[in-house]
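Hey,
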Amino acid sequence: MCHPSIRMVAVLSIVLSAAACSSGTSSSAPTVAATTTTAAPTTTLAATTTTSAPQPQTATKGDAFCVALISAMQSENTVDLDNGTPESLKATTAATIEAVTVAQAVVPKDFESTMSAFATFLDSVQKALAANNYDRVAFAASDAGKAVLTDPAVGVAFNEIDAYLAAHCA
């Protein structure tokens, strides 16, 4: 079951037969770092963002958002739905969600809707994986897994992320 527009699903390293995507800090925004955890998240990603500093209109190379988004995409690329064990899927999905949460906290105004869509997608993936005990085969066979893997909005979001990274963060 390949969906050519799902790039993340290399959150997914090549999301289950779906083919699924780079740093500094800003003087006005906090330094951002993502850490790897082994526990699955118990909360979902928020659709809204809050920041302690004024929210910028757009990102610039090396700012907190670019650093966080690059980290999130690198984490996303470690989720291996083709070969991952339940333990590795649980850990890498949690790390990716954590990295996206960091990026959401400093998302610029011009990218809020895409980050919200991406966070919603990751939340759906995490819930579907958890419902299937992080078994990649059961996930792919489940209605929720199929819905996540075939959602055309996912490919659009990944294309928008790639384009934004290239235009603002590279």
